[in-house]
Specification:
Layout lengths: L12 E2 L3 E4 L6 H8 L14 H18 L3 E6 L5 E8 L12 E6 L8 H16 L4 E7 L3 H9 L3 E2 L5 E2 L11 E8 H11 L1
Antiparallel strand pairs: 1-2, 2-3, 3-4, 4-5, 6-9, 7-9, 8-9
Length: 197
């Protein structure tokens, strides 16, 4: 049992090209620009105002401060540029497979096609399984989001076809309501590491 007066250990980490870290004030503007890009948000519900975008940053920062982990800001180490976020999260919405820990990501469009999402997510999975001891991590996305589904498959996640669901936060009748579910258990993750060595 943890003493409530003991501060949470903040987890930040590097991958070969990226740094996953706590959010900074300077991240707010590039995050808002990313959230205003129709291509980035094609398979996500929009954040219609700068205030909504800033509130999302604040929620992510607060969760990391409280838990030590969450959706980390992703910085390109070579340039110091904020390019998106990646991390682990307990969804606020009650989903058919709750309770769960999800992995998620979002990157600025000019960084697409360079493997950053896969690289950052692999680092987040390592934290989730090795440091935090999760037994399973899930991922889900709108049915039409083939780009994110491809990242999930590159990570060694397997689609739970029977677990397909309608996301309760997305309005009924909306084209983004139907979602695919992917799963990855700790043993399967360890096996993917052995095969990649």
């Amino acid at each position: 049992m943890t003493d409530e007066s003991t501060p949470t250990l903040l987890i930040e980490f590097d991958t070969p090209r990226l740094r996953l870290r706590q959010w900074r004030e300077s991240d707010r503007s590039p995050f808002a620009a990313m959230a205003a890009d129709p291509q980035v948000m094609e398979f996500l519900l929009p954040l219609p105002t700068r205030a909504d975008s800033d509130a999302s940053v604040e929620r992510a920062r607060t969760r990391i401060a409280e838990n030590g982990w969450g959706f980390w800001a992703v910085e390109h180490k070579a340039t110091g540029e904020f390019i998106g976020f990646t991390g682990l999260n307990v969804p606020l919405a009650t989903l058919p497979f709750s309770p769960c820990v999800e992995i998620g990501w979002r990157f600025a469009r000019h960084t697409w096609g360079q493997g950053f999402a896969t690289e950052a997510a692999r680092g987040a999975l390592q934290v989730g399984f090795e440091r935090l001891g999760f037994d399973e991590i899930v991922a889900f996305t709108a049915v039409g989001n083939l780009r994110s589904a491809a990242v999930m498959e590159r990570l060694g996640m397997h689609e739970d076809v029977a677990g397909a669901f309608d996301h309760p936060v997305v309005p009924e009748g909306h084209t983004l309501r139907a979602h695919r579910l992917y799963r990855l258990g700790r043993a399967a993750w360890a096996a993917t590491l052995r095969t990649s060595e």
